[in-house]
Design brief:
By secondary structure, this protein is an alpha+beta fold. It has helices spanning about 1-25, 50-55, 75-85, 105-145, 150-185; strands at about 40-45, 45-50, 55-60, 65-70, 90-95, 100. Helix 4 (about 105-145) runs antiparallel to helix 5.
Length: about 180
């Protein structure tokens, strides 16, 4: 019973860290990254489709993203989606590929991005703590119903706390790494 709670808690916390890592990949630093645009929603024949399903995305140079649509007729729709996004990048296309040249970030913009990363980090920490709270509630409920002993409940809570500490440390490491990347000139 406790093992099930621990297993479920571990999976949910791992998921929260994964979502956070994906979000960080989409935050623009000075470098080009496919993660910046791959989740961009494109109106493709009336259907909202992620860019990564419509094109191959690569970074041939540190400051450039190259988008090669599988269907050449999608070029205009992809360009439009990029222009309407909040990336602040103008796409250059030659009817077959789209190039995104990353403009350098200003110091002020870098600081804003760091604040945004810190805000998202705190939200991810809260998500992990909510998973911990739910797991501890389940353990206490099992103990009240006499399904597990008080010692088992305490052991379970300790295990949940270890998982929480481990996953919050992962979040901190990801955030620190992203902040360094953003502030790098």
């Amino acid at each position: 019973m406790i093992d099930d709670i621990i297993k479920e808690t571990r999976a949910k916390m791992k998921s929260a860290v994964g979502v956070f890592a994906d979000e960080l990949a989409g935050i623009r630093s000075g470098r080009a990254s496919p993660g910046l645009v791959e989740r961009l929603s494109v109106d493709y024949y009336g259907q909202q489709t992620e860019l990564r399903q419509l094109a191959s995305i690569s970074t041939p140079e540190p400051q450039q993203i190259l988008i090669r649509p599988y269907d050449k007729t999608a070029v205009k729709a992809i360009e439009k989606a990029i222009q309407q996004s909040d990336l602040g990048i103008n796409p250059n296309s030659d009817s077959e590929v789209i190039r995104l040249n990353m403009p350098p970030l200003t110091r002020e913009r870098r600081q804003d991005l760091v604040k945004f990363v810190q805000k998202r980090t705190e939200e991810a920490r809260i998500a992990v703590r909510n998973v911990r709270r739910n797991a501890n509630d389940d353990l206490r409920d099992f103990e009240k119903e006499k399904l597990i002993s008080e010692d088992d409940m305490e052991r379970g809570e300790e295990e949940v706390q270890k998982l929480t500490d481990k996953h919050i440390a992962e979040l901190e490491e990801l955030a620190k790494s992203k902040e360094q990347e953003i502030m790098e000139v």
